[in-house]
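# nightly structure sweep
# worker-07 picked up a monomer target from the shared queue
# config: single-sequence mode, recycle default, output format = structure tokens
# input follows
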Amino acid sequence: MPSPDLNQTLSKDRHFLQQALRNPKRFGGAEAVQQKYQKSHQAYLQRLANLPQPHYDNTLPVHERREDIKRAIAENQVVIICGETGSGKTTQLPKICLELGRGVAGLIGHTQPRRLAARSVAERIAEELNSDIGSIVGYKVRFNDHTSRDAHIKLMTDGILLAETQTDRFLSAYDTIIIDEAHERSLNIDFLLGYLKQLLPRRPDLKVIITSATIDAERFSRHFAPAGVPAKIVSGSLNQAKRPSENAVGRILESDKSRSDGINQMSDTSIRPTTLGRGQQAAGLPTPSSLPEHISTHAKIRPESHVYDMDALSPALPHRGREQIAESDKAFSGAPVLEVSGRTYPVEIRYRPLAETDEDEAEIDMPDAIVDAADELARLGNGDILVFLPGEREIREAAEALRKSPLRRHDEILPLFARLSNAEQHKIFHPGGGKRRIVLATNVAETSLTVPGIRYVIDTGLARVKRYSARAKVEQLHVENISQAAARQRAGRCGRVAAGVCIRLYAEDDFAARPEFTDPEIIRSNLAAVILRMAALKLGDVAAFPFLEAPDARYINDGFQVLLELGAVNERNELTKIGEQMARLPVDPKVSRMLLAAQKHACMAEMLVIVAALSIQDPRERPLEAREAANKAHERFTDKQSDFLAYLNIWDSFQRERERGLSNKQLVQWCHQYFLSHLRMREWRELHQQLVQIATELGLVTKENAFRRPQTVEQLRPSERSGDQDLSAKIKQQQLDKKQHRAHIRQAKEAGYEQIHRALITGLVANVGLKSPEGHDYLGARGSHFHLFPASALFKSKPKWVMAAELTETTRLYARDVAGIEPEWIEQEAPHLVKYHYFEPHWSQKRGEVVASERVTFYGLTVLPRRPVAYGKVAPAEARELFIRGALVAQEADIQAAFFAHNKKLIKDIAALEHKSRKQDVLVDEEALFDFYNQRLPENYMPSESANSVGRMLESDNPAQPPIPSPRGGGLEPAPYLIRGRGQQAKGLPNQPRPKPQTPQPLADLRTFQTWLKQAEQANPRLLFLSRDDLMQHAAAHVTEAQFPPHWQNADGKFKLSYRFEPHHPLDGVTLTIPLPVLNRLNPAALEWLVPGMIREKLQLLIKALPKQIRRICVPVPDFITRFLAANPDQNAPIQPQLAQAIAKSAGDMRLLEQIDMAAWQAFRLPEHSYFNIRVIDDGGQELAMARDLIELQNQLGQAAAVTFRDNSSDFERDNLTNWDIGKLPEKIQFARGKQQLTGYLGLQQQKNGSIALRLFDTPEAAAAAHRQGSIALMALQLKEQVKDLNKGLPDFTQTAMLLKHLGVDNLREDITAAVLDRALMGEDTPPRDEKAFKEQIKRARSRLPAVKEALNRYLLATAQAYSELNSKIGRHPLAHTLRDQLQALIYPGFAHATPWQQWPRLPIYLQAMQKRMEKYSPNPARDQAREADVQELLAMWQEKVDTLQKQNQPLSDGLLGFRWQIEELRVSLFAQELKTPMPVSVKRLMKEWEKFQNYENN
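# output follows
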């Protein structure tokens, strides 16, 4: 078929037609291709016929250069037009393109940096073309497309055009692209310029016009020049022409440049993708003959046809594509620059720096400088003033200063920043009234936005600039000096209604020193979105991409790092499956990741609402004059756990109001009531609808489940049972119902909370933080520290773990929009980012495997400090060794196998020989046992088909490789570190598939080991059996049962002995196990002798503890010990006295005993194993106590032992005895307690209630003491009349009681009665043990009772009189303290019964001696002190001995008690010699007496 002219077809169809004309059969035949061509051709002609004819009023500077502009566009593919602000280039360039015939084959795409500018410019162009918006001129911002199919001009943001590259890679829908305000150098613009540079050689029909007032023309021209040399700059000056007043622009503010755009500002790249058919792109220019008359002849200078190659844009192009590109490059001649000078009204620049040159002048504050500048401008004439400030805080300060100024009090002060309410925006863009307006703005009004009525500008020279820190991984918003280009843009905001003045609050030199242009966003932003898009489009290496200005390698690496965190790329920077899905979503990468996670967690409806909210400005308004009221109104939507859920609460509340059928006006009023921006709520809903459409088209969610339905607030219903209840029961039931209702609501919230926030954390994982120990800030990833934003609902509660929507650095690093999270979610949602650290590997008997503690960290944060994991999957070789050492060598396992029981018993028997001999030279060491098992166990276990019979291996016919439990828990994963075995051909039918090879398993757990063992024992049943030869180093013939008996025996029977050789262990040495009832019956001396096999070592240690001169007598020590033991020492007596006697006898000098300090020798502590370890058990065998000190155990359990001893002795005991009707009372009896034969001792005992009972005692000492007092009490019952008369008191009792009143009358009477009864009824007699002896004792007691009573009365009266006289004289005498201590030891409560009878006559003498001592003290106090020191020395030795015996539960001998009274006689001899003593007494005599007493006690 003849080749038709493709120049008269739509550009989007040219590629398809080109391919179809070459091979019609491939596309349905020649007829179908011809129909497609005719359809496209007719559409082209129709658009050509409808092409509007622009008109110009020649009032703008750009009109005078119109022909030059038309010629430059017609002759060049890229044109750079520089025009001053107000020159008309923005609105007139699309009209000039229409005049050239552009916009017929495709659209004239016109980009603006802001959505507001795109809408307002579209409306202005449509007004000048006398058309409605959307017909000839349309616009597309974010997700709102107001462009019809017949439109010729399309206004949009640069992000929209960039997003369309995903579905229209060659931008074939356009034949002309105008990039306005290119000086801003946003990330989208720089990427577009690089993309267009690659695209233009393939699209020779595409025209690109780049324009701005403050553009770096040379850089842009050099970017598009083939040889890197910029084209010639064509310049010209124009006369300024007067133009009518500027139309008011702007209905809402688009965005605040000072706000961080982490994910809060979703880029305009978020557009709805459309599906295009094959061959929707073509190229070519209309032929001259086909153009209408009104189209400029400049459009006819290139009549030749252009057909462009549609191969991929990536560097790796087919050979044919490279040839065609080379041909196109020859035709591409670079980018000429056309300058359009002049503006409508002139602008005067004035400099008013804050710091004056005069040193005496102080620097002016910024608010004061603004007030002075406003006053200066006001004097020039009428007109509104626009003030540029860096942020909201500075706006508030300047507004306060202006309102306080007397000259500006009548002016209207208006703030202008992104978070303004709709009403406040309306005041700015729709001025009314005659007041001068002073608009305080951030750099949101710097470009593309014209505030009506502005004649003057005050430029502070500062702006808050967003910079991404690759080191800190956060967005930083710091106040910086603006560039010269930004300053010119600010100056260009005035002079549009009349001649303007711009006052710069900095010096002219400062302006000249500033950089000419603002740093492009690409060198100060995160490049994650750009990299993801380039990877999806396969545009090659980022570093090699032709950016206008190449970004720093650090920012490229950081962009890849962000994508790695999101899971979009792998460690090789290759796009993953998740990354491919993310690239399909035309939204911010973090948002796309969260949407994908929401699909997984079934919370897509909630996530669509949240990400839409994060992508717009906060709908909550906080007016400066009503901040407190706004905060209170917003409390309705606050969630205490999550700021993200607050957005859901706002959404649900708004939806409920809409479902109520409220009108639009009522909804506006509702929003105003709760300080919500209705305009932003509408934008939120529109954005949400577009996101829903994207999600449904991509199959992420069904349309039915995409829209969130407001949660119904369940009302508390009364219980059905409350009707029949009383008032109290009803109140309790209501409280229970409320509690259950709250629990139900909390449970429902917690279920959804985890799903939502786990989805959020996938995109915000880098913004997690752990509360610092101090609790003031949070430790974030990579060592960062941040604070919660004060407006957050979590600011006061400060949960332990949080995540934030963004981290923004101003005065400090703040986290905004935060929520509490669980640290486990980080690992679950970002497993590729966490690191695992393993420590403390060990064998666990409870789990039956080798485990280690695993710590999970995320960029320096400890997510999980410790958890047990199977170590065999982490380090199989090390785990195998730990398994052998723990389970087999140490036998800490529950292995039901014959070898294990055999080996365990054999090792125990041989180890017992070591414990007894206390030498580790019998059993082989653990290394020998390890080598035994190590040689027999394989490195790992390979499951086989035979293993299936025991049901413990992996099935060999499983077509899929079985997963292995992850050492991290919670999942299954392959074990990459194991050697994979080669599978064998499966036997059976010919069609049977070959099974995949099994994976070897490490021998690190009992299940795998037992499975292997069953296989191994089939070949060698005794493979792991140990023999005695394997375990023993020698025969250990010296370890006999006679030397180390299994039992210790005394009169009460045999008690088990156990041996252990483990120094410093509590059970080291020999342990004696005894039942509780025999505890008090043990002889401490007998226990000193241990067992025959250990006594020699103990004796050797005792000899070594002696002084050297004594120790030498025993040399050689082993022979001396042999002779000592051969002499058969008494093994029921202490060792040391007998050993001392043997040493003195061996030396042949018994005086040697005086050189041995027996007290120090006995106090010397031997090693613990030199004493019995006594273990006390109850009848059930449970341990009650254990110690090596018998006395300590007897003090602790002695009373319980005595009670337990007579538990089964009811046959011997009787209660409530009043007469001797018990027959003859034996001193001891034999009885059985279980299997134990015990000896008990009977005696009478007076109970606490005064009754007398017959009781069985476990020791003769306890029985004798109780029987004496019990016999006295029983005799007193027989002598009732005498005892009754005795209770009335002694004849002189009244006088005695008055003299001893400090003792108490009743206590003294009872004490005297007890003393008389003890002396009269028993005295020195032996307590009776039969009825005859009892009656005889009563007879004797009745006869001597009066004499005892009279004698005690006499002694007691004399003692009381002496006490009273002495007490009255002590006063403040220097000896008062000493004498009172002595008195306290003699006269105390109970002294009458405790004082021996023979000491009663001497008791008044002791008191009189104290008076004499007081009288003799003054002449010679030094002598008194010296004598008292001797007395105290003797008294201290006696008291120490008494305390020791009492601590050991030993009775005090009569000699020891008598020594105490000898000390009192010594005091009489020293201080009152004239009173005389019954026997000679002195310090020397008493010291010798004490030594004799000590030797007697020790022997």
